UniProtKB/TrEMBL annotation:
PROSITE patterns: EF_HAND_1 (PS00018), EF_HAND_2 (PS50222). Gene3D superfamilies: EF-hand. Residues 75-87 have a biased composition (Basic and acidic residues). Residues 104-139, 200-227, 229-261 form the EF-hand domain. Residues 63-96 are annotated as: Disordered. One of its GO terms (molecular function) is calcium ion binding. It comes from the Eukaryota. Keywords: Calcium. This is EF-hand domain-containing protein.
Length: 278
């Protein structure tokens, strides 16, 4: 009997040792796995993600990177693009809920999208945006420092509003409408969105007088891809005091107001040329 107890005891010890070995092996494998796992950080907390899932995510991201992307919104976090109404600016002529902009405002935004679409493929790319800027720069009226600042601001504006400078990054008409809606409801973005307007003025102010005449305004429209007849008509409308010139302050105000107001009586509706038909 004593011999049987000894055998049972030895068997129990062997089983315990085997269990310990299995657990130890699993623990080592788990720890090794964790050692080779990249930490995932969300800005507040960092954690370790399963390696298999990591590899799947990497493969999925690689696949997505090869697709033609039409969304510009990855350039800004979602919460910055869709602020709560309590954080939105409430100008009397721009305030709206949701996407209930008037068809008049939508026509104006489609007009600008068409102007920025330099190659006329129906999409605005960074290359289009840069070519648009180069038209003004090529007039030769900006000094070297102003020209550098202008291009830098064009790049910053693109990145803030539409994301990465990427050959596969495009803005469709509807995306442009949606994005401009969010820009106008975001105080900080609204202030910075059209900071390139003064450079357009300086680029066409040929005599550097601080004012632009109808002749110089025609240069502005030529850079927009519009003809002189449209420029003459638009200038006659926006030159409300009839002095035959537009100051830098007036130019910038009209340019910004075009994007902000939904009031069809405002003369700023002529600033970017005739509105395109729906």
């Amino acid at each position: 009997m004593a011999f049987s107890f000894i055998r049972l005891g030895l068997r129990s010890v062997a089983l315990n040792l085997e269990r310990a070995a299995i657990l130890s092996t699993a623990s080592v494998q788990s720890n090794m796995k964790l050692i080779h796992t990249q930490p995932i950080c969300n800005g507040t907390v960092c954690y370790l993600q399963d390696k298999v899932r990591d590899n799947h995510d990497v493969a999925e991201r690689s696949s997505n990177s090869l697709r033609r992307c039409y969304s510009k919104q990855h350039g800004r976090p979602e919460e910055l693009r869709r602020k709560k109404e309590s954080d939105s600016e409430s100008d009397s002529d721009t305030e709206c809920k949701g996407f209930d902009r008037t068809e008049f405002w939508r026509r104006k935004m489609r007009t600008v999208h068409n102007i920025l679409d330099v190659d006329k493929d129906g999409l605005v790319s960074f290359n289009d945006f840069l070519l648009f800027a180069e038209r003004f720069k090529a007039l030769g009226h900006l000094d070297d420092e102003q020209a550098r600042e202008f291009i830098d601001i064009i790049k910053m504006t693109w990145e803030e509003q539409w994301g990465a400078i990427d050959p596969y990054n495009f803005v469709t008409v509807e995306q442009y409408l949606e994005d401009m809606h969010h820009v106008l409801n975001d105080k900080s973005l609204k202030k910075r969105a059209h900071r390139w307007l003064p450079y357009l003025f300086k680029a066409v102010d040929k005599d550097k007088s601080g004012y632009i005449s109808v002749k110089e305004f025609k240069l502005f429209f030529q850079c927009l891809g519009l003809d002189n007849e449209h420029a003459a008509v638009a200038f006659a409308v926006i030159d409300t005091n009839g002095d035959g010139k537009v100051s830098l302050k007036e130019f910038v105000k009209l340019g910004k107001e075009f994007f902000c107001t939904e009031d069809e009586t405002k003369v700023s509706k002529m600033f970017w040329g005739p509105l395109i038909d729906v």
